[in-house]
């Protein structure tokens, strides 16, 4: 409240590199900017009151062509915590939007209402189409495979918060490594930094695709090994990223039941893990992490939820070109 | 706007007794605090502008696992009128939340977004589970029988606004007294104050359960009488609390039609009532109060809607520990 | 934020003529007030920051008994851009509202929460009923035929923005002129100003109803001619208002396919049009304007979306009696 934000000044000389652009994938964002977004998220976390009016007068539109309440609430809270406002629709409400109108027309329309858009759509490529039609920044909140850049930013922020760094780490990824696009995106982004040892833990039926393995092989000082045995490797890990093993991926129920238990993390399995290993999970979980693990200090998946909101605050303000009060000064002092 | 609220100071030394706790039922809230909430609601009503920034920077999450638009809008308006913001979902949007995720996990997640939660759920006990998992205050907005503490606070606020007191009154309750949990909660709470004469007006099929009658018998100076004849007792009442008689409660339609009209309040029946009797109804009504009654000065049910918003403003700010500007000073002067 | 709005003062002496009333149709709003609303919309467009707190502390309720996302988002954004807040429901969420409760009761309830209401309902006449029950201003956002006053204000604002005036113009209306109530409302309102030459372009099956033609005949210096040939008249037009030709209006598919192409506007047809003709469309479009036309400077339909938000800002603030800072002074200087 005491912070008087001047929109005219903040959109003129203070050029933020990401300002005005859309983010459909992290692949075309320079690594220095990705790391800067993580710095911003960490700064926001410790300067909640200072940043509470960063986006005063802004409006975010959440266009969710399929429901994803968790992701929608995270985007919306992020904007509200920055002082902005929210409009939008989710799933069942969209009848009149989808009725014969193209995504492009909807985005051209919404560009007249909102300053920034988060879009989720069941069809792969929809976010790119949306970003090309819109005259305001668009953030991909999941299309098709439901991979989306803010999930990967969330994962990176959580690893760095727990381990103090993003490489020179042994990172285990466990569960469905074939269809889990969240995992592919995380691996790909970490490979850009290099110096990561991946341990890929899955049943034979759900191994990592060749294009991801090739990405690791071609990266500076990255290695991987594949295994089906979580118990055998858990003691080597700095980070364990759990994913859900969906029954529908298996040909028969016997295989599913046999394998499922192998990939459930519980207190018993955790006894062999390092005392400072970080456990991540993109949530929602079904039963792949036992509830008893929630109270283990290594559990980082609810902290991950919090980081999800923080990286979205960082990204939304950066794309809008609304500078976080005090951030630049603090960074200059640190440098 | 001119009121600059300092969050750091208001969450430190100014200890509000209810601060930080959840409210699943009124039964474990001391009567002094219930009365203080009613005082706060009355204060808010006459100090709208002074309290308009009490919850600046706060976020309420409304998690409505079944639709109840009336209740949801009341909770949301309450937070907006205090300067806060709202996120949430309602009914049809919740697919992705309910998909395999436990209420506990959802509440742990939402605790990272919001400062306070209002939850409505079709299963009895859901609000208690939610309050145990959340790390922020949770308000029960109805679970199972749809009894919820803010409805009872609303009823109490309306009785006090109309009659100037909550006991030394003859209070009639009319209609479905078997399944109407709103009525049970109101009786139970009034019994804690004592000195109330209840007149329980219902068909034989819908009489008050024994546990409620026992509650009245064991209370200081409370009495009750049961009757099926509204006309015969309406002249004795200070307050008449109407409820809906649902057709599905009856074995056959003949019984329903025969009884229904007996429990419809209209101008004709009101001729026998006192000129200052207050007519309450939890709404929505179907036909149990004729529309002609709306213009009678004794009708208090739309004032009740207004009181519903005011008590939610009182409760939300109290649980957040956000002190209403000027309230304490006024109370000290009054004492 | 720097703008301190004083609610007490702005609701006392500064009497705005429209303050406190409901708008179900434009027919009973004096033309001077309609023109003043257009002036206000234009003022808002060039004074975004000055008006950003005009409605601080206000709450708009959007009661959409059927989904119309485009219209809902426009009303909501308008209130948010004025500093107010929004509550409401849309389509699927309304179960509990509609469950046996009359529109009148819902409006009496919501009048306790909100300062102004926008209602959309599938039944003709619902908005009038709502306005009679509510104790706050109600805006008709479409009932029955989906004609609504803010659509016509939007069209007028766009014509005036493009042509500098609302009469002494040749205005073509093309497509479904029988069922397109948007078109009827626009013609009727323009006839109140007089001096408009209408060119009514439609297939024989979809000609303008007699009551609309009679309205034109009885207006001062208005003329019309009917034609089925867009190509033959496009060169004469100052404004071309396109509408959708819906397949279900035709007896057989052959007729539909034969006629449809005649009424699709594309770059080829536009070659014969004047260089400063304005192309309007109420949106959403299906295929009646080719996407290639979007980049033509004559295309005004996305500017129309923007004007829709601006006229809603003008109308909401006027009905609330919240004066736009600086507007009156500017108008006095101009006069």
Automatic annotation (TrEMBL), chains A, B, C:
Binding-site residues for L-aspartate, renumbered to this chain: 99, 181, 244
Binding positions for carbamoyl phosphate per the UniProt entry: 70-71, 120, 148, 151, 283-284
Classification via PROSITE patterns: CARBAMOYLTRANSFERASE (PS00097)
GO MF term list: amino acid binding; aspartate carbamoyltransferase activity
Alphabetical list of InterPro entries matching this protein: Asp/Orn_carbamoyltranf_P-bd (IPR006132), Asp/Orn_carbamoylTrfase (IPR006130), Asp/Orn_carbamoylTrfase_sf (IPR036901), Asp_carbamoyltransf (IPR002082), Asp_carbamoyltransf_Asp/Orn-bd (IPR006131)
Domain Aspartate/ornithine carbamoyltransferase carbamoyl-P binding: 21-160
Known pathway: Pyrimidine metabolism; UMP biosynthesis via de novo pathway; (S)-dihydroorotate from bicarbonate: step 2/3
Pfam families noted in UniProt: OTCace (PF00185), OTCace_N (PF02729)
Residue span, Aspartate/ornithine carbamoyltransferase Asp/Orn-binding domain: 169-315
Family per record: Belongs to the aspartate/ornithine carbamoyltransferase superfamily. ATCase family.
Name of the protein in its database record: Aspartate carbamoyltransferase
